[in-house]
Design brief:
This protein is an alpha/beta fold. It folds into 2 domains: about 100 residues, Formyl transferase, N-terminal domain (Rossmann fold, 3-Layer(aba) Sandwich), CATH 3.40.50; about 80 residues, Formyl transferase, N-terminal domain (Rossmann fold, 3-Layer(aba) Sandwich), CATH 3.40.50. Helices cover about 35% and strands about 25% of the residues. The protein contains 6 helices and 7 strands, in the order E-H-E-H-E-H-E-H-E-H-E-E-H. Strands 3-2-1-4-5-6-7 form a 7-stranded mixed β-sheet, with helices on both faces. Helix 1 links the parallel strand 1 and strand 2. Helix 1 runs parallel beside helix 6. It is globular and about 50 Å long. The mean pLDDT is about 95.
Length: about 180
């Protein structure tokens, strides 16, 4: 199987990145993580780039020159898919247009509910019984692209923001790899 080159954008701990790297090491997984981009120079997720010897770049999302450099690098590395995994910046419309249909994101809710930030707080405030995560294509509207896959989880009466985040992350770790397989079927 010829794998496609992929880039993962992160901002924080990189738990989804780690799962994607491990999945990409499997023979029949359709992508190879060949580049990592972070908008946070101290993101602990960059440790996975170092451990697995994957080149990475620290992006200044507000700097046009930095964006142009990243576009050049993605083209040079023949990137077929960009995976946003806890990337906490909104991509510029020009960037999305350049990679139209080739950027996917994972969001910690059952979209279209709870777009944006503070998802777990809002889920609990509304006393929802079910939540989950959504892997979707990125378009120029926040968390509004076509859904690829959703995973549901039940909310327990004792759940708080921290426990709910943990449950949803477990679902995310399964959902992201499954969604990538669907993208390349």
């Amino acid at each position: 199987m010829v794998k496609k080159n992929a880039c993962v954008f992160i901002s924080g701990t990189g738990t989804n990145l780690q799962v994607l790297i491990k999945s990409s090491r499997e023979y029949n997984f359709p992508i190879n993580i060949s580049y990592i981009v972070s908008n946070t120079k101290n993101a602990s997720g960059l440790n996975f780039a170092k451990i697995y010897k994957i080149p990475y770049y620290i992006l200044n999302a507000n700097n046009r020159l930095s964006l142009e450099l990243i576009l050049q690098q993605l083209k040079k590395k023949n990137i077929s898919l960009i995976c946003l995994a806890g990337y906490m910046k909104i991509l510029k419309k020009k960037f999305i247009k350049k990679f139209n249909g080739k950027i996917i994101n994972i969001h910690p809710s059952l979209l279209p509910k709870y777009k944006g930030l503070d998802t777990f707080k809002r889920v609990l405030k509304n006393k929802d019984k079910i939540t989950g995560c959504t892997v979707h294509y990125v378009n120029d509207k926040l968390d509004s692209g076509q859904k690829i896959l959703q995973k549901k989880i039940f909310i327990g009466s004792n759940d708080n923001e921290k426990s709910l985040k943990k449950k949803v992350q477990v679902a995310e770790h399964k959902a992201y790899s499954e969604a990538i397989i669907r993208v390349f079927k």
